[in-house]
Amino acid sequence: MADLPAVRLTRVALTSVMRATTHIFRLPVPLPALDSPKWQSPVRAFAWGLRSVASTVLTPVLFATYLGIGALAHDTHFSLGWVLASTALIWAGPAQIILISTVGSGATVLQAAVAVTVSAIRLFPMVVSVLPMMRTPKTKRRHLVLATHFIAVTLWVECFRLLPQVPRERRIAFTHGLGVGLVSVCLVANTIGYSLAANLPQLFAAAILLLTPLAFLLSTARNCRQLADILALVLGLALFPLVTMLHTGVDILISGVSAGTIAYGVHRWRERE
């Protein structure tokens, strides 16, 4: 595949791209009622999942993130086909950055694979929490393979927001549509970022990187419904600065597990009353 011509991405150009993207992907898309005949077909459920990509604030965040991944792949001399394949097959921004960085720095394929696998372990609890929302008595394991592949932080957040509005027997098809839509947005962003070969000011690039965790934090806060959810989030934020003083290297893990355990204990205590 011939390399695409490199174009310098200025601050003005990126701002115009992101403004257009935000306008496209923040259209309101209300879902039909649970008993609506519009849910009768799996194909229509898939289409509703695809359309729901336009209703989430995380879509432009993903676009910005994968714009940078495309530019990073260009700067490290990977082909456009390679970065598109990694997006479709890995579908996890941090894991892709690890892959590009390790392979680009001369590490072996085995070393890169181990690093990517370790980073992907964080997604396991998300898969475990989302799959029961899709299962029915007739669901077989093979029906969940593609949905499992799509479950990353973005889909995990959106499943908790959207799946309660979808009939249980149509949730797998809906998730397939949502996943395909989100991955498609990232593939487009990869292509644009690769062709622009982004050269952003350092401060502006750091602001874009901050956008992703900030959006995930706000989305998680928006989806908190029970006291345990709120308590886990607040305690996690409060404990993290204290845990960082220990210099363990796994500060987020320790603060998250501690906050979640305390919140779960409070939840069980309240249930017994």
Describe this structure in words.
There is one protein chain. This protein has 2 domains: 11-223, no CATH class; 225-273. Residues 1-9 and 20-26 have low confidence and may be disordered. Helix content is 70%, strand content 0%. It has helices at 11-25, 42-51, 58-75, 80-90, 93-104, 109-120, 124-134, 145-150, 153-162, 171-196, 202-222, 227-244, 251-272. Helix 3 (58-75) crosses helix 10 (171-196) and helix 3 runs antiparallel to helix 11. The N and C termini lie far apart (65 Å). The chain is built from 13 helices and no strands.
In summary, what is this structure?
The chain has 273 residues and is mostly helical. 70% of the residues lie in helices and 0% in strands.
Keywords:
single chain, 273 residues, mainly alpha, 2 domains, 13 helices, 70% helix, disordered N terminus
Radius of gyration: 20 Å
Number of helices: 13
What series of H and E elements makes up the topology?
Answer: HHHHHHHHHHHHH
Number of domains: 2
Q: Biggest sheet: strands, sense, closure?
A: none
Kindly name the structural category. mainly alpha
Which stretches are low in confidence, meaning pLDDT under 50 for 5 or more residues running?
Answer: 1-9, 20-26
The average pLDDT score comes to: 81
Distance between the termini: 65 Å
Q: Approximately what portion of the residues adopt beta-strand conformation?
A: under 5%
The number of distinct β-strands equals 0
**Cα shape:** globular
Helix content class = over 70%
